[in-house]
Amino acid sequence: MPIRLPGALKGRSALLIPAFLLLLRFGLILSPLSPWLRDDHQLASPLTSFTRLKEGVWLFQNGIDPYHGGVFRHSPLTLALFSTVIPPIPLVSAFVWTAADGISAWSLLEIWRARISPKTDPAGGLMLASLYLANPYNFAPTIALSTSSLDNSLLLLALRFTVLQRASPAVLLLALLSFSSLPSVLLLAPLVMIILSGSRSATTIPEIDLKKAVRVVAEFAVYMAAFVGASTFVAGSWGWVLQTWGATVMLPDLTPNPGLWWYFFTEMFDHYRPFFLLTFSLHPLIYVAPICLKFQHDPLFAFFLLQGIISTFKSYPTLSDAGLYVSLIGLFPELYPYFRHPLVTGLLHLHAAVLLPLFHYLWLDAGTGNANFFYASTLVFGLANGATIVDSLWAGLRSTIGEKEGWDVVQL
Amino acid sequence: MFARIPTGLLALLLLLLSGLTNPSYVLASSQAEQQAAAFFSPPQEHTNNWAVLVCASRYWFNYRHMANTLGMYRTVKRLGIPDSNIILMLADDAACNTRNHFPATVFANADRKLDLYGENIEVDYRGYEVTVENFIRLLTGRVSPTLPRSKRLLTDSRSNVFVYMTGHGGNEFLKFQDNEEISAFDIADAFEQMWQKRRYNELLFMVDTCQANTMYSKFYSPNILATGSSELKENSYSHHNDADIGVAVIDSFTHYILQYMEGQNKTSKATMKDLFDTYDPARIKSHAGVRSDLYPRPLDQVRITDFLGAVSKVDVLPSDGRPVGAPEEIEEPLQVAEEVVLPLPTAESSSERVVMEPRPTGAEPLSVDQPVVFQGEKKSTLRAWGAAGAVLALVAWRLSAAS
Question: Which stretches are transmembrane (chain A) (predicted)?
Fold first, then answer.
């Protein structure tokens, strides 16, 4: 049920808004705001920080293995890219990050067009793209030059190719993404489902071409292997595996971030650590099968939900993970009437958005608070994300029942 | 799709195999390793100063030893070492001694113009706490866990330590409080323990006793500069008496050193060589000696304030309107010279002292905006280019393919 978004934009003039937002980004990255935000704990995790990237590039260019210490945790492919094609200097970085956000917005637009016919809602896609760019959850990490913005671009671009039924680029980009963000591997399942059955919601369970599915997964495996080989070639040894993927699983770096892992593991006794690392890492796995099975009719929605789960339960999240997830809600306007507590969820997000930087400042700058304050705000943030997932799930299930004139849907 | 394996994919598979089978490509060049090692442990400059001032005598007739030590205490405090970095060991029985005609004072000069006891001295070890055991424990750091912080020598590997000892001594020994002795071997071993535990960067050992030069004859640890007041079989003499106090108020060697130091302040660039050049056996009435064979730097390049003062080094950076909180583009402290060896920070080229000198020219700090070019690290760049090129080619190929 398409909803006409308020203030629908028409025609060419509508492109001015995303263009302006991109230019604003470019300008702000080159301003003094960017260095100030660069190491902010909410915007840049140990896996995505630009400062660490620069350090790793410098070490690499001096013949020192950047994976010997615990500082550099980006993938070797990122290392190769930033030590050759994209030198980490301000002007080039500004261009790259702005372009990445532009690609994200464009991909979002294309996905929207594939999902919702432009005839029923001509300007909604551009509105969605503009909202993505304007969302502070996405805006701030880009200004901070956090590579999580680049991860978002990769994800949205992969999704774009998926909804256009182009399997090869889709799994290629997903393989590339999984080097920066290991939990995103779980998105392969809904991705394959979208490739097989399309991006729109179906009324019947679609037939699955198993052979094609196996081919797509095999292609993904080949790309992964190729990238692993290329990474080892760049890094010179296998040490990168423990430092990058290993970091996601073993949590060696307890730098504060908006996630749910770090505080838990700061106060953990060593002999419980392996057990809890195991449970926390395997936790997102249990959602893959149920969500994909329940939403066989609408695999894009399954993708959306799984992305939400990954964002919430990641080991080193940043605000851009939540930003991506929240922006994807716009692809499913049919959910809007069925949200049960949108106000609560929205307010939780607002609370978290205000409390996270506030308590971070109180704890680490002013010194009048302590870590528990910030931890509490990460709990609120996790609750906000969780509430979004749960409400979307409910709305998704409810929307399949639909409406019928003169009939009421009741719960027995 | 897999019926025909495209050539590009084949090339990638070969790349993969080569990555898996070849041994490690990291042959960290010794040049770059040296450079990184030099960055993390550069030729040392000290970052903080400590002083250990020991008066090993007690009783009224050893008033001059108390005055020696308090004079040194006043000098090092005046030149900037804070009380927290000074360990003062005194018997402290002179100022309030019943025989003191001027109670609560200690003077080092018969004119009695400068009261060294004053209102603001902090004695860390007083009275019967000044023992050989405490002294050696202090130096080596092997103290009881309950010992208060003010009594500990909390030096680190970048501390310059000034150790001054005065009292009655002899051939390779020093008498502690009329009760026990410390030998030159003990002090040498304590300093060696300090060296092994990285508890000093450089150490100046000054001793004013009879036959003082024998006290430093047994040192064997690096970075120690030592000076003493008299040779073997020579006595050290007091300088003058005060008729009203009734005892000698200062020793000769220390008197002339303090007199010289009165002419110095924190900005003084006088070197240790200047100080040692003022030693005049005729004036001091004994042959003061210097031992510098364990000391790496030439004495005319070592400032007195390196030991007797605490002069902070200040890095003055160009003001170009950057906000206070912005850390980036001001760092990159690593100076890259063409010859890939870090220039040793000498006294001239090091960063500024309290006096504002113009920033030395030479290797500018490498800013992020300049491309980083190093000789001899082509292999990793080639690897990066190869991998980046392969990955980008693969991405471009698959994105443009029809499927």
Answer: 12-33, 170-196, 216-241, 275-293, 300-316, 346-363, 375-397
